[in-house]
Amino acid sequence: MSERKPLIAGNWKMNLDHQQAIALVQKLSWALKDVSHDFDKVEVSVFPPYTDLRSVQTLIEADKLPLVLGAQDLSKFDSGAYTGEVSGAFLKKLAVKYVIVGHSERRQHHNETDEDIQAKVAACFKHNLVPVICVGETLEELEEQGAAAVPIRQLTAALAGHKEVNEFVVAYEPVWAIGTGKVATSEQAAEVAKKLRQSISEQVSIEVSSATRILYGGSVKSSNVAGFLASEEVDGVLVGGASLDIDEFTGICRFQKHVTL
């Protein structure tokens, strides 16, 4: 493990209404308290749907829960005639810290381009939100271009053209491993993370590269998380379906109990 604080991020995707969200967060906080989770050593963030954000924010603040709130997307626009869009300014008012940007499902189902993602990263920086920039390749791209080629291209495009680069997180999610049950090996994840960090060093600076957390995502479970986080190159995980299962997600958050170096 590196000195960067690990981040365990739970992306709920389009699941749970606001009442179900309150129940899940309560159960998660109780479960983590029961196992004496040290939030100073491992950060835990949840990413509910837009309609749940206010309810979860209120619960976190009222009960002083050490969980961090994230959003699943944001608009590249600040305000205006953009029906259905949600501004970064609105998210900031809800005490959101992290925003997922460029998830493969957004790229695939909403035709988001590298230019769209670059603009959304800019919106995050403008509103003092931390983008979790998702990168990853399909199985065909992996076979044709090799490991890391597509993720590096995507990250380079996302970071290009910004006058000032604020804090950001990178999530390497091979598309072929999302929701398929297929998982990259810990060695594959570590190698791609290492190359992504080198790319950040070349494009931005060594200091930013050293400080940036790089996560792995793609069929992460409590039974395999320790392998990914045993590497000093991987600083956390972006969890999908397993984040809706209290026992599984709690087990993932407790990865340090199982890491052997």
UniProtKB/TrEMBL annotation:
GO CC field: cytosol
Q: Does the keyword Transcription regulation apply?
A: no
Question: Pfam families annotated for this entry?
Answer: TIM (PF00121)
What PROSITE patterns does this protein map onto?
A: TIM_1 (PS00171), TIM_2 (PS51440)
Q: What class of enzyme is it?
A: isomerase
> What Gene3D superfamilies does the entry give?
Aldolase class I
For molecular function, the Gene Ontology terms on record are:
triose-phosphate isomerase activity
UniProt-listed Enzyme Commission number(s): 5.3.1.1
Q: Which GO terms describe its biological process?
A: gluconeogenesis; glyceraldehyde-3-phosphate biosynthetic process; glycerol catabolic process; glycolytic process
Q: What are the entry keywords?
A: Cytoplasm, Gluconeogenesis, Glycolysis, Isomerase
N-terminal signal peptide: none
Pathway where this protein functions = Carbohydrate degradation; glycolysis; D-glyceraldehyde 3-phosphate from glycerone phosphate: step 1/1
From the Swiss-Prot or TrEMBL record, give the protein name.
triose-phosphate isomerase
Q: Can you name the source organism?
A: freshwater metagenome
